[in-house]
Design goal:
The chain is an alpha+beta fold and 165 residues long. The chain folds into two domains: 67 residues, no CATH class; 80 residues, Immunoglobulin-like. Helix content is 21%, strand content 36%. The chain is built from one helix and ten strands. Strands 5-10-7 form a three-stranded antiparallel β-sheet, with helices on one face. A three-stranded antiparallel β-sheet has the order 6-9-8, with no helix packed on it. A two-stranded antiparallel sheet has the order 1-4. It is rod-shaped.
């Protein structure tokens, strides 16, 4: 809901500080405003008007908090990006493969909700690389492997996310 600004108006009267005094029993007095001519009726100081302000302040605070969260997530996402290169080796013959290697992250994540993207993979020989698999995610690392018969594969990877909770 959009906040509708209320234009507050001061009351303008002939005698702003004048009161009529009525003496009561027991030495008490009753003071009643006696403003004279009212040139401009002011905006009432009421619960309705003050609560309208409170709602506007709350809406603005909520919006500012959401923006701060978005900015923190962007900052975390930028700081959370890691690019690395690793060489995996396979000493087995097909259909076997022992290329799995654990990769340590430079920055420990707060969640396992991060992505590992393979940017480039190059085999050391003419044999196939097969599928590259990223698994075994932990807060401080993950594992990479390939399914082909190449003796060695150099992989460039990029890790993003996992910093914001």
């Amino acid at each position: 809901m959009n906040y509708a600004r209320k234009q507050w108006v001061d009351e303008a009267v002939q005698y702003p500080d004048r009161f009529a005094m009525q003496t009561l029993a027991g030495g008490m007095v009753n003071l009643t405003p006696s403003p004279g001519t009212v040139d401009t009726v002011g905006t009432p100081q009421s619960a309705v008007n003050f609560n309208h302000i409170e709602c506007g302040v709350l809406d603005a605070q909520t919006a500012a908090s959401l923006i701060a969260i978005d900015l923190q997530m962007l900052k975390d996402a930028q700081g959370a990006t890691e690019v690395g290169t690793v060489t995996l080796t396979n000493t087995k013959s097909l259909p076997f493969n022992n290329s799995r290697k654990t990769i340590a992250l430079k920055k420990t994540r707060r969640t396992l909700d991060y992505n590992v993207e393979i940017i480039e993979a190059t085999a050391s020989d003419a044999k196939p690389i097969g599928d590259i698999v990223a698994n075994g995610k932990q807060l401080n690392g993950f594992a990479l492997s390939y399914s082909g018969s190449s003796a060695s594969v150099t992989i460039k990877y990029k890790v993003t996310g996992g910093i914001s909770v």
